[in-house]
């Protein structure tokens, strides 16, 4: 069995989850079995599964495993329930007890505590979960309990985990979450009783749990979804992206490391020149084996732009908004629709209003229908400083949208050929005004371009990313393990 290991999924996901969904379809295309494995506490897992079309027998979650027991590993949750929540509030209007009845059969009871902020000396009292119990809604039995500790350095951590009423009435105790996960992964490995492959998409705790202690017959693949490098000022001591530091300092524990672009593989080999057989390139996104028929057209006013990403600081959506507002103020008719959700939403909404751009710049929220939406626009614009692949870039190119983006590692540099299927611009990490000017200049180049030729070139760019090509890469790699 092939296990896709992640923290959790939600209604709004990052590129990591979308890369997993894409991989699942390629595994189906190649007749390769798989399961999604989620290690995080996820009360609304069923709601997310419904949104993204995941079936009961495709998903494993550590908390559900210990709570639901029985045939859960092979068949999933035995029964779905109605979800409901209840909260008990004390006389000071403080939340003290929270009941969460999940659709997949967990009754979660959280005891909330009030305490001073350990991370800031601001006199603020925080309210958070101190103790959690989980009951099986099918039987009423208590199955799990743990304490949540607000560590001075690590912040919120699970401690003193008790597992009750397991097979043969056993009671387990784990000091921390990694030890609990390690037991869970070993039980999965035993249950499928075959040469299993754990494909790790996210989580240093998952890496520790899987590879620190030998697991019989199992293979381990780590997926790199972002730029792995912080800086290489000292070539002998590169500064790694902390999300990948464990893997990069324990390469011997992993059977393969998968990156999404040739450019990133070449960069890996600068630091690991003897690992050519271990480090492979398999794109995390692709296009249909049957290219869409695109009707070429000339640009007409207003210029219709789309941008798709999480609304997070590292995506620098504010620079896109400022550039489009300046482009509009220079006298050009333009529309910009921004798809995605995230913590920057309110800040970006305020920026749009302050720029008096509400009439032509919109925050559109999430959409599961992007394939149908892309063709309504003329071009895709991004201000991300770094992308492991740039999943939305390839989706836009497949819809015949030229790309405007920074010359950023690695996705844009691999997918966009400046002046051929889009426009790449220089950028500076500490100079927003410079960046905005560069994006405006790129928008002007788009207006002055031979747009029908740009459109034709977009689909030629993505021929090597067709679904069957990527499915074959996975099939070949797994058979070679």
List unreliable stretches of 5+ residues: none
Supply Rg.
24 Å
Strand order of the largest sheet: 3-2-1-11-12-15-16
- C-alpha geometry: globular
Largest beta-sheet details:
7 strands, parallel
How many strand units? 24
Helix content: 25-40%
CATH architecture of the largest domain: 3-Layer(aba) Sandwich
Protein name: Glycosyltransferase
Domain Glycosyl transferase family: 292-453
InterPro entries: Glyco_trans_1
Organism: Lacticaseibacillus brantae DSM 23927
Verbal overview:
This protein is an alpha/beta fold and 481 residues long. It has 3 domains: 2-74 and 178-281, Glycogen Phosphorylase B (Rossmann fold, 3-Layer(aba) Sandwich), CATH 3.40.50; 84-176; 303-464, Glycogen Phosphorylase B (Rossmann fold), CATH 3.40.50.2000. Helices cover 32% and strands 26% of the residues. The chain contains 16 helices and 24 strands. The chain has helices at residues 15-29, 45-52, 62-68, 72-75, 177-192, 204-211, 245-248, 262-271, 317-329, 345-354, 370-373, 391-398, 411-415, 432-448, 451-461, 467-480; strands spanning 2-6, 35-38, 59-61, 84-89, 95-101, 106-116, 125-136, 142-151, 155-163, 172-176, 197-200, 219-223, 229-231, 239-240, 256-259, 279-281, 303-308, 334-339, 361-365, 379-381, 386-387, 403-406, 409-410, 422-425. The chain has a 7-stranded parallel sheet with strand order 3-2-1-11-12-15-16. A 7-stranded antiparallel sheet has the order 4-5-6-7-8-9-10. Strands 19-18-17-20-22-24 form a 6-stranded parallel sheet, sandwiched between helices. β13 (229-231) and β14 form a beta hairpin. The longest helix is centred in the C-terminal third of the chain and has 17 residues, at 432-448. Pfam families: Glycos_transf_1.
């Amino acid at each position: 069995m092939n296990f896709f290991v992640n923290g959790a999924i939600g209604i709004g996901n990052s590129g990591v989850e979308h890369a997993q969904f894409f991989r699942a379809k390629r595994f189906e295309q190649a007749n390769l079995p798989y399961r999604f494995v989620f290690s995080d506490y996820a009360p609304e897992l069923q709601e997310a599964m419904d949104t993204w079309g995941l079936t009961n027998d495709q998903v494993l979650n550590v908390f559900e495993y210990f709570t639901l027991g029985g045939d859960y590993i092979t068949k999933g949750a035995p029964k779905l329930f109605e979800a409901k929540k209840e909260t008990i509030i004390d006389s000071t209007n403080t939340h003290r007890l929270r009941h969460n009845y999940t659709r997949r059969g967990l009754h979660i009871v959280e005891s909330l505590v009030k305490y001073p902020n350990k991370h800031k000396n601001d006199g603020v009292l925080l309210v958070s979960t101190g103790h959690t119990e989980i009951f099986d809604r099918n039987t009423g039995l208590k199955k799990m309990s743990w304490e949540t500790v607000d560590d001075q350095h690590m912040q919120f951590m699970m401690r003193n985990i008790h597992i009750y009423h397991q097979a043969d009435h056993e009671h387990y105790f784990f000091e921390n979450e990694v030890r609990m996960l390690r037991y869970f992964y070993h039980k999965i490995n035993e249950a499928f009783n075959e040469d299993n492959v754990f494909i790790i998409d996210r989580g240093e705790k998952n890496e520790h749990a899987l590879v620190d202690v030998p697991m019989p017959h199992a293979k381990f693949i780590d997926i790199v979804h972002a730029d792995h490098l912080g800086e290489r000022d000292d070539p002998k001591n590169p500064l790694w992206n902390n999300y990948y530091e464990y893997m990069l300092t324990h390469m011997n524990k992993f059977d393969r490391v998968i990156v999404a672009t040739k450019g990133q593989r070449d960069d890996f080999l600068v630091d690991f020149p003897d690992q050519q057989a271990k480090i492979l390139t398999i794109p995390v996104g692709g296009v249909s084996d049957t290219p869409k028929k695109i009707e070429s057209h000339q640009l007409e006013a207003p210029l219709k732009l789309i941008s798709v990403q999480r609304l997070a600081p590292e995506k620098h959506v504010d620079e896109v908004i400022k550039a489009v507002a300046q482009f509009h103020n220079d006298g050009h008719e333009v529309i910009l629709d921004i798809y995605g959700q995230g913590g920057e939403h309110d800040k970006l909404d305020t920026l749009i209003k302050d720029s008096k751009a509400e009439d032509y710049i919109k925050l559109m929220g999430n959409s599961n229908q992007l394939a149908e939406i892309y063709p309504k626009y003329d071009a895709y614009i991004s201000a991300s400083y770094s992308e492991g692949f740039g999943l939305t870039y390839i989706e836009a190119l497949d819809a015949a949208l030229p790309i405007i983006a920074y010359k950023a590692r690695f996705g844009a540099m691999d997918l966009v050929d400046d002046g051929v299927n889009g426009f790449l611009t220089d950028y500076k990490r500490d100079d927003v005004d410079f960046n905005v000017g560069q994006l405006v200049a790129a928008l002007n180049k788009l207006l002055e371009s031979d747009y029908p030729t740009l459109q034709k070139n977009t689909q030629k760019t993505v021929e090597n990313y067709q679904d069957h090509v990527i499915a074959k890469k996975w099939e070949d790699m797994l058979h070679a393990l």
